[in-house]
Amino acid sequence: MSRRLAREIAFKTLFQLDLGKNEIEPTLSGLLAESGISRENAVFARELVNGTAEALAEIDRAISQYLQKWQLERLAAADRNILRLAAYELLYRPDIPAVVSINEALELGKLYHSEEAAKFLNGVLDKLARDHGRVDKVDK
Questions:
Q1: Are 89 and 97 within 8 A, CB to CB?
Q2: Could you tell me which of 61, 42, 57 has the C-alpha nearest to residue 3?
Q3: What pTM did the predictor assign?
Q4: 43-71 average pLDDT score
Q5: CA of 73: how far to CAs of 81, 83, 125, 138, in Å?
């Protein structure tokens, strides 16, 4: 099992927290148990969810700067939570190359929304990465 699955589980957890106002632990634990994910990747998924949840207000402010003619709360829930997850990685996880965070977000966007959504996500995340000093990793 890969980090991609860990990100997908993190996304699903954030999505459920956003729409259902669920609690983190039972939601995340249930998804992890169903997935059969490795212990190492389960830890990674937990880090992503908890880190995103803890910094949510700052993440939302950062994302909102790049939404031209849109408001974060009016975006499709899938897009909003993919952006949050990827923004967490870009802003708080310098150990993860920006290009990886962005590419993984695009794959989630294609899987859970559409090709068009992936283009939108790419534009927002690329600007966020560049403006936060992650340009060297995006351009590689």
A1: no
A2: 42
A3: 0.93
A4: 95
A5: 10, 12, 17, 27
pLDDT in tens, 72-107: 999 999 999 999 999 999 999 999 999 999 999 999
CB 82 within 8 A of CB 110: no
Three-state SS sequence of 14-73: HHHHHHHCCCHHHHHHHHHHHHCCCHHHHHHHHHHHHHHHHCHHHHHHHHHCCCCCCCHH
| Assigned CATH for 3-133 | 1.10.940.10
What whole-number distance in Å separates Cα of residue 57 and Cα of residue 12?
19
Residue ranges per structural domain of the chain? 3-133
What b/e string do you get for 76-94 counting C-beta neighbours within 10 Å, with b at 16 or more?
eebbbbbbbbbbbbbbbee
